C-alpha cells in the first residue's frame, strides 16, 4: 500500500490517543490485540500512515499511527529490530500489523524490540481494510480539531467583549484564568510582573508567582519540562515585547490553551496600545501586593519573595509603611503616572521603595527601606516630599495627605501599612501637615471607622448641636474656642495664647459655651466627652 501524505506537525493537534483509536468500530473490525508497548497507549496520534517499505520511517514526521501488512519489516531479526528502532526514533505513535498476508504471526525480535522501546505494537487478527481505518481516525482528528477551534472562538468572543466593554487588561486576564482554570501572568519587557490573575477559589493560585518565577529559570531544578508553561509575545510599543504566560500549576496544558493564548495575546496588545496601561498595571500589581500585605493575607516568607518578584528587594529587613491620598478627582492614567514618578523620585533620592495604587485612583500605599530605626522620621519626611512632588507634577495643586506608620520588619509591616492607610483616610479633615504620624492618629482613625455609626452622629448632635446652631446665626464663632480648649487639655492659659485672646475675653467665651451646652468645662469627664464630640464631628458632619 502507498504511504499517505502527512501534514506538517502544526496543522492538526494531537487530540486522539492510540487507545481511543483502537476502540473505534472500524478498527475493532480487525480484532486488534496489543502485543507490546501497552504502557504507552495514551500516546497522541497526529496522523495515520499506511506503507509497506523498509524505509517507511524516513517519511514520517512524528505522531503517526503506521498501518502495514509487514512486507517491509525484513526477514532477519536484525532487520526487524532496526525497523522498530527507526520508527521509534522518528516518533511514531504506534505500529499496527495485519496478520494473515505477509505474516502469520509477529516475529519475536519485532515484539521484543517494541516492548523494550515502549512502542505500542498491535496485531490485527482479522483482515481489515486500511482505508476505512484511516478515514475513521482522521474523522476523529478533524472533529476534535473543529471542537477545539469552536471552543477557541467562543472564548475569543468573550475576551473581545471584555475589551470592548472597556473592562481593561486585569479583567481580560481574570476571564482567561477562569476559562483555562490556571494562573495567567503578563510580563513587561524587562521581565517584571505587570499583572496576573488566578481562578477564583482555586488554592493553587496562591503559588502563581512562584510558578511564574520557575519559568524564568528560578527554582526549576527537578521540575517537569511542561511546568515552564506556554507563552505568547505581547508588543508593548517601542522596544522588546512582553509575554503573556499561562502557567500549568499541576497538569500540562492542552492545545486549546495554546490557541486561546495566541488570540488573548493579541487582545492584550491591542488594549495596551489603546490605553497605554503598562504603568497602570504595574501600579495595580504593586498595589494588589501592598493591599494583600496590609490585609494580612500574605505570610512573611511569601511577602519577601513576592516583593522581590515585582522589583522590590531591600538590602535590610527594616521597612517603613506609608499611605497617601487626595480628595481631588483623578483619572486612572494620571494617577498611574503619579505612582511611577513617585517611585522614580524616591529611588532618585537613594530610597529603595515600592509604590502602588491602594484601592482607587487617588490612593496609594508605599514601602520604603530603612537601614536603622533612627532614620524613620527623616525618611518619612523625604518620602512625603517625593510623593507630593510627583502629585504636583501630574495633578497640579491637589492636596496630598500622607500618613506614616512605625518602622517594622516583614513580619509586622502589614499592620503598619494598614494603620498608615487608615491614618491617611482619617487625617483628611485635620489641619494640613507635611505628613502625619499614624501613631498619633489612633482616636481619629477609630472615629473615621465609626463615621457611618448613627450613635456617633447622635452624640455629636446632642453635645454640640446648640453650639453649631449658634455659630450659624452669629458672626463671632464659639466652636473654634471649644476646639482649642480641648486641644490644649483644658488649660486656659495655653488656649488663650493659641487664640491670641486675653484671659477675660476667653473666660467670657467659655461662659457662653457652658450656657449653650449646659456643660461644666472645668469637669474633666465633661471636657473629655466634648473633646470626643469635637473630633467625631470632623467625620459625621462634613460642612
TrEMBL record:
PucR C-terminal helix-turn-helix domain sequence ranges: 478-536
Protein name per its UniProtKB record: Transcriptional regulator, PucR family
Domain spans labelled Purine catabolism PurC-like: 21-141
Pfam families in UniProt: HTH_30, PucR
PANTHER family the UniProt entry points to: CARBOHYDRATE DIACID REGULATOR, DNA-BINDING TRANSCRIPTIONAL ACTIVATOR ADER
Source organism, top-level taxon: Bacteria
Classification via Gene3D superfamilies: PucR C-terminal helix-turn-helix domain (1.10.10.2840)
Amino acid at each position: 500500500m502507498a504511504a499517505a501524505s502527512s501534514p506538517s506537525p502544526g496543522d492538526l493537534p494531537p487530540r486522539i490517543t492510540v487507545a481511543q483509536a483502537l476502540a473505534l468500530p472500524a478498527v475493532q473490525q480487525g480484532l486488534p490485540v496489543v502485543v507490546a508497548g501497552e504502557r504507552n497507549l495514551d500516546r497522541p496520534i497526529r496522523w495515520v500512515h499506511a506503507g509497506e517499505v523498509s524505509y517507511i520511517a524516513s517519511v514520517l514526521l512524528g505522531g503517526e499511527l503506521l498501518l502495514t501488512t509487514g512486507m517491509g519489516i525484513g526477514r532477519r531479526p536484525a532487520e526487524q529490530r532496526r525497523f522498530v528502532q527507526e520508527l521509534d526514533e522518528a516518533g511514531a505513535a504506534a505500529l499496527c500489523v495485519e496478520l494473515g498476508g505477509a505474516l502469520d504471526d509477529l516475529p519475536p525480535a519485532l515484539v521484543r524490540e517494541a516492548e523494550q522501546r515502549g512502542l505500542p505494537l498491535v496485531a490485527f487478527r482479522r483482515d481489515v481494510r486500511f482505508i476505512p481505518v484511516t478515514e475513521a481516525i482522521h474523522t476523529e482528528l478533524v472533529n476534535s480539531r473543529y471542537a477545539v477551534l469552536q471552543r477557541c472562538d467562543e472564548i475569543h468572543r468573550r475576551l473581545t467583549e471584555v475589551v470592548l466593554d472597556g473592562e481593561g487588561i486585569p479583567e481580560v486576564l481574570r476571564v482567561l484564568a477562569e476559562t483555562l482554570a490556571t494562573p495567567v501572568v503578563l510580563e513587561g519587557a524587562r521581565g517584571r510582573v505587570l499583572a496576573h490573575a488566578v481562578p477564583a477559589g482555586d488554592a493553587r493560585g496562591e503559588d502563581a508567582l512562584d510558578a511564574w518565577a520557575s519559568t524564568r529559570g528560578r527554582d526549576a531544578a527537578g521540575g517537569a519540562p511542561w511546568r515552564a508553561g506556554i507563552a505568547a509575545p505581547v508588543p508593548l510599543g517601542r522596544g522588546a515585547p512582553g509575554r503573556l504566560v499561562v502557567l500549568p500549576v499541576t497538569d500540562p496544558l492542552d492545545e486549546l490553551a495554546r490557541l486561546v493564548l495566541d488570540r488573548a495575546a493579541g487582545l492584550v496588545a491591542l488594549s495596551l496600545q489603546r490605553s497605554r496601561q503598562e504603568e497602570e498595571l504595574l501600579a495595580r500589581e504593586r498595589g494588589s501586593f501592598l493591599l494583600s500585605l496590609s490585609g494580612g493575607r500574605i505570610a512573611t516568607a511569601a511577602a519577601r519573595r513576592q516583593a522581590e518578584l515585582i522589583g522590590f528587594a531591600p538590602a535590610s529587613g527594616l521597612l517603613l509603611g506609608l499611605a497617601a491620598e487626595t480628595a481631588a478627582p483623578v483619572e486612572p492614567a494620571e494617577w498611574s503616572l503619579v505612582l511611577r514618578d513617585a517611585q522614580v523620585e524616591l529611588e532618585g533620592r537613594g530610597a529603595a521603595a515600592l509604590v502602588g495604587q491602594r484601592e482607587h485612583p487617588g490612593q496609594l500605599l508605599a514601602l520604603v527601606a530603612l537601614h536603622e530605626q533612627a532614620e524613620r522620621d527623616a525618611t518619612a519626611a523625604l518620602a512625603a516630599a517625593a510623593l507630593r512632588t510627583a502629585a504636583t507634577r501630574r495633578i497640579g495643586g491637589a492636596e496630598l495627605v500622607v500618613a506614616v506608620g512605625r518602622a517594622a520588619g516583614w513580619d509586622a509591616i502589614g499592620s503598619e501599612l494598614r494603620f498608615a492607610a487608615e491614618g491617611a483616610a482619617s487625617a483628611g479633615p485635620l489641619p494640613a501637615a507635611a505628613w502625619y504620624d499614624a501613631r498619633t492618629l489612633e482616636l481619629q482613625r477609630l472615629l473615621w471607622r465609626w463615621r457611618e455609626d448613627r450613635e456617633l452622629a447622635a452624640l455629636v448632635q446632642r453635645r454640640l448641636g446648640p453650639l453649631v446652631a449658634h455659630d450659624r446665626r452669629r458672626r463671632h464663632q464659639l466652636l473654634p474656642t471649644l476646639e482649642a480648649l480641648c486641644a490644649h487639655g483644658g488649660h486656659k492659659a495655653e488656649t488663650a495664647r493659641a487664640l491670641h485672646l486675653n484671659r477675660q475675653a476667653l473666660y467670657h467665651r467659655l461662659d457662653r459655651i457652658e450656657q449653650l451646652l449646659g456643660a461644666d468645662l472645668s469637669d474633666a469627664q465633661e471636657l473629655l466627652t466634648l473633646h470626643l464630640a469635637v473630633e467625631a464631628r470632623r467625620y459625621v458632619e462634613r460642612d
